[in-house]
Amino acid sequence: MKTTVLLFTVVLIAVLSECEMVKFGQLCSGNSSNRRRTGDRWGQGHYGARRGDRVHQGLDIVCNDGATVYAPFDVKLNGKVIVYTDPKKAAINDGINLSGEGLCFKLFYVKPDKYSGVVKKGQRIGTLLTMQSVYPGITSHVHVQMCDKSDPTKFF
């Protein structure tokens, strides 16, 4: 009997913890469900997708070039992200470090309105840069990467 009660308690705690997990709100105008980039000629957008000799360390959320990017929950803006060192990719070489809800994450390919301060859930962070100018035919997207490079999928 004690083993059954203990097992039930452990399962209940695990279920409650999963239910209370942070979920990202809408990131981009025109994509209220945070639809993920699947595959295109440039690759796939899921965490762990192969990129030649490296592995994709984020999750790509579909977003049209020039679309408004929103705060997924109340966030603190923690500075600029440099995505590339290649000058040929300068048109999309911007992003922002953010924290909120106990998470630290980065958004790539976003031109933020500002790099510091606080933004409330659903308020504008900035706009998606013109991915098509660097990667013609790609499914334009915001790349979401956790600061510790862990898999962000469970937050969507």
Brief rundown of the structure:
Helices cover 12% and strands 33% of the residues. It contains one helix and 13 strands, in the order αβββββββββββββ. The strands form four sheets. Strands 5-13-9-8-7-11 form a six-stranded antiparallel β-sheet, with no helix packed on it. It has a three-stranded antiparallel β-sheet with strand order 6-12-10, with no helix packed on it.
Q: Assess the beta-strand content as a share of residues.
A: 25-35%
Strand arrangement across the biggest beta sheet: 5-13-9-8-7-11
The low-confidence parts are 4-17
Major sheet: size, sense and barrel closure? 6 strands, antiparallel
- Specify the number of helices: 1
Taken from the alpha-carbon principal axes, the silhouette is globular
Q: What structural class do helix, strand and pairing data support? A: mainly beta
Helix-strand string: HEEEEEEEEEEEEE
- Alpha carbon gyration radius: 18 Å
Helix content: 10-25%
Separation of the first and last Cα atoms: 38 Å
Number of separate strands: 13
What average pLDDT do the residues reach?
91
GO molecular function, one term: metal ion binding
Protein name: Leukocyte cell-derived chemotaxin-2-like
Disulfide bonds: 28-63, 104-147
Signal peptide: 1-19
